Every structure is written in C-alpha cells, then in structure tokens.
Amino acid sequence: MNSDEEETQEGPKSSFATYLAEGDKLFQKGDYTRAIESYSTALDIQPNDRNCLVARSKCYLKMGDAQYALRDAEASLKDDNQFFKGLLWKAEALYVMGDFEFALVFYHRGNRLRPELEEFRLGIQKAQEAIDNSVGSPSSVKLENKGDLSFFYKPEEPTRAGKTQQQKQASERENRSQSSKTQRQLLGELYNDRQYLQRLMQDQNLIKGSVGGGMRVEELIREGLEYLDTRTDFWRQQKPIYARVRDRKLMRQKWNRGRDGLSPSDSMRSVLVSLEETDQLLADGNAEGSLRKAQQTLKVVEGWSSKEAASKMQVGGETQPSYIGSAL
C-alpha cells in the first residue's frame, strides 16, 4: 500500500496550513495539477476556507477549466458575498467562459469595494472591449420589439417544482454547443478530431471497454470532447466571429450607398465576393485555400486608385488581420 492510499484511508497527516503552503509553492512553480491536489487536501480539513477555495479556483483557470474555477469562486462567496478575491476570480472565470456581461458586473462590484486594486480596473476594461468586439458599439446596434417576446413575460404560476440533475446537465451541454460552422472556424484542424470523437461515442461496444489502468474508453473520449469544448469557448472569446460578420455587413451597406451618391464600382463588388469566399473556405476547414484567397484579395485592394483610398483602408484592414490571421 503506497503513501497516497494510506493518507486517503487514515486522513490527512499534516495540518491545513501545511497543505495550503505546499499548494502555493506548487502554484508558483506552475505545477497546477499537484497544487490542486494539495489545496483539495487542505479543503478536506477546512472545507469552507475561502482563501483556499480561491487559490484552487486560480489553478483550475490556469488549466483552462473555467467551470470548476467558477464553482470554487462562488463557494468562496457563500458566507460573504463581498469577499473581493472571490469576486475577482468569479469575474475572471466568467470572462474566460465568454460571459463578458456577467464578468463586467462582478468586476464593477469588486471595483466598488476595492477601487485601489488594478485587477478590477483592468478587468472592467477588457470586459468592455470584449463586449464591443462581440456585438459592436451601442450606436451600431438597433433593437426592435418584434418576434417572440413571451420569454420576458412573468409566468402566472410555476410549471415545475424544479429541474432534475439530468435536465440541468443537458441544459449545460446545450448552452455550450456551437453551430458546426462556428466550431469549424474556431477549432480549425481539430474540428475533424472532435467529429471523430463524437462518432466513437456512438459505438456502444467500444465505449464499454477499458484501457490500461482500468480507465473506461467512454471516460477518455468524454474528456477529449470536454477539452475541445473548453478550447472552443476560449478561442471564441479571444477572436469573436460575429464582430467580423457585423463589420462586413456595415461595410457592405456603406459601399451600397456609395460615395457622393455614386454606385459602388465593380472592383468593390468583386472584393466583397472574394471576402465571402475567403470566409467560406475558412469555415470549411481549408485554411491554406483561405490564406491564398485573402492574399490575392489584398493585392487587388493595394492596386486601387487614390479615389478608392477610403474603401481600400477598410478592406485592407478587414482582410489582413482577420482572414490572413485566422488562416495562419
């Protein structure tokens, strides 16, 4: 029987402070997996210690597991919802998950409590920038009161006593799901790997098997899918897709109006079509073809006359960082 098994059966052999200090040292060294183990052992001794919960939350966030990071941050706020460290790391976890609006709320809440801390000010700034990149500035968004508004009506009486655990898990999976086009754009070559893992999950004979160490094949596949979903969420908030679509629509509207009442030139129409083709190639996973198309379009734009200089600046800015950067 090894020492880990003995410690599990007999309980922790050291004090809470010892395991907490050990976790801090491992965190500083970048050994986040072992740091989590030390923090977890410390929490077995003092389950509600908020500083230890925040420390473990930071480790989970470093490893890209924002869901567990958010869980620990929320637990640290259970007894004191004004604990500034818990507010900070709850906001950070929400930001990594792409919930920029809610992250901004908690950055502001922490900033009101501890205005001298730079972390909250920087958090407010990056959350606001992420929101602007995702949906645009308020002046470019027009809200309309049409469509199905029943979601906003207060129900007369509750229809259910509550959700079952399975329903909650299904809801979480649904919220994390992306359209296939969006996933393909974000994952690139890894998109095919995700499709392959999904097909394996449907092979009932395969997933019932096990590999070395007694781990089930189903568990390995599920971990792979969870990792790719986490990466998808991370890359989505790093380079938002819909901001590019919105900017291209605004540019199309401007071109359609034309400058000084003139119709857009044929060269503008051609470049616009090329941008759409570049986007489709990237969505289909053809990064090399998308890169070639973007470079060709950029050469065309660079050859425009001085009369088209304003549009050249817009298209050049749209083509070079967005499409060429994504293809690379």
Concise summary:
This protein is mainly alpha-helical. It has helices spanning 3-10, 16-29, 32-45, 50-62, 66-76, 84-96, 100-113, 118-135, 165-176, 180-187, 190-201, 204-207, 217-238, 242-257, 266-283, 287-302, 309-327.
Low-confidence stretches: 157-163, 259-264, 315-321
The count of strands amounts to 0
SSE run: HHHHHHHHHHHHHHHHH
Query: What Rg do the Cα atoms give?
Result: 25 Å
Mean pLDDT: 74
| The CATH homology group name of the largest domain | Tetratricopeptide repeat domain
- Spatial gap, N to C terminus: 51 Å
Largest sheet: none
> Given the structure, what is the number of helices?
17
Provide the CATH architecture of the largest domain. Alpha Horseshoe
SS content category: mainly alpha
- Rough outline: flat
Helix content: over 70%
Strand content: under 5%
The tally of structural domains comes to 3
Can you walk through the features of this model?
Helix 14 (242-257) packs antiparallel against helix 17 and helix 15 runs antiparallel to helix 16 (287-302). This protein has 17 helices and no strands. The protein folds into three domains: 16-135, Tetratricopeptide repeat domain (Serine Threonine Protein Phosphatase 5, Tetratricopeptide repeat); 180-241; 262-317. It is mainly alpha-helical and 328 residues long. Residues 153-183, 309-328 are annotated as: Disordered. Residues 317-328 have a biased composition (Polar residues). InterPro entries: ODAD4, TPR-like_helical_dom_sf, TPR_rpt. Keywords: Cell projection, Cytoplasm, Cytoskeleton, Repeat, TPR repeat. One of its GO terms (biological process) is otolith morphogenesis.
